[in-house]
Amino acid sequence: MVSIVFEQASVEFPIYNADARSLKKRLIRVATGGEIGASAQGHVVVRSLDGLSFTLHDGDRVGLIGHNGAGKSTLLRLLSGVYEPTSGHAAVTGEIASLIDISLGTDPEATGRENIYLRGGLLGMTRKEINEQMDGIIEFSELGDFIDMPLRTYSTGMQLRIAFAVSTIVRPQILLMDEWLSVGDAGFQEKAEQRLNELVRSTNILVIASHSRELISKVCNRLIWLEHGKVKMDGTVEDVAPHYFGA
């Protein structure tokens, strides 16, 4: 059963070598409403996420909204396993794939083909699985003979095309995204849009951070509005969007 369950999950980042300037720290704590505080050991701590409680089930298409610094990226990284809660509980059941940084793990000195193995391995694919998908990845990326050239010889658009082609070949149960991906020229963007829509339809749970009301209304059936690391609203798009974006 695919699910995500958070129970009072918080993430704090300690800031060391800040024991001086105690007056300044007190002023900062007052000015930020306690979002910057101090641990029991006296270290300054930043609470990026504060007591999040929610449950996501099969079929949820969740949009994360909130101003910059509200905690959306931290929550995505907590879901992907990059961070662990410093307090509370976070349980994720199901295979996860992240499209937060599709170029992560690429090597500019390696060829496009070699980078397919590198990126595929980071996504949890075996060498056999990558070999089975290799021709399709190369065809989709439209790189032709460049596939056996070093990545540093590629244009930025070519690098994004191969990263996108590899990253979207998997079909995870839980998909994490930081905004909708837009890569390549107009012709490739059309292919990419179709591939992304297929990926979203095939996944059990989608969590995407976005500032676009149009995208959220199109893709999501639920919104979680974060403010200062806390859940301000959690409900359907129809209920939450007007409060955040305006009528």
Briefly, what is this?
The chain contains eight helices and ten strands. It has 247 residues and is of the alpha/beta class. It folds into two domains: 3-94 and 208-245, 3-Layer(aba) Sandwich (Rossmann fold), CATH 3.40.50; 112-203, no CATH class.
Describe this structure as you would to a colleague.
This protein is α/β, with parallel strands linked by helices and 247 residues long. It folds into two domains: 3-94 and 208-245, 3-Layer(aba) Sandwich (Rossmann fold); 112-203, no CATH class. Helices cover 36% and strands 27% of the residues. The chain is built from eight helices and ten strands. The strands form two sheets. The chain has a six-stranded mixed sheet, sandwiched between helices. A four-stranded antiparallel sheet has the order 2-3-1-5. A hairpin with a 2-residue loop joins strand 9 (222-227) and strand 10 (230-235). Helix 3 (112-122) crosses helix 4. The longest helix is centred in the last third of the chain and has 17 residues, at 186-202. The chain starts with a strand and ends with a helix. 32% of the residues are buried. The mean pLDDT is 89.
